[in-house]
Predict the 3D structure of the following.
Amino acid sequence: MKQGIIKKPIAVTDILQDIFPKEWNAFRFRADLELERSMEIGHWLENHPEVTHWVAVDDLNMSFEFLSKYFSDDESNKNPGLSNFVLTPRLSEGIKQTGIKEKIIKYLKDE
């Protein structure tokens, strides 16, 4: 049991180096963990179309808005930011923060 989590994950993502080696080579020295992680999650979601209700919760800001600083409106340079994302800032209580649980539930209930 790590960090009080007792349920095992239902799945894990592949790592960016394996799924997008060219992009990984471009990002690996920039330490853009948010960008890498959002691409890994996006790849997993593309390969699991049966998943229609989901939310990513993390202290890395993987939101579409945050990652837009790296991308133009050009379709060839598509922003991989996550639409269903809830930020839990570092040095806080994570999902125990006021309002976080409600945001998570909203994404899971929306159709």
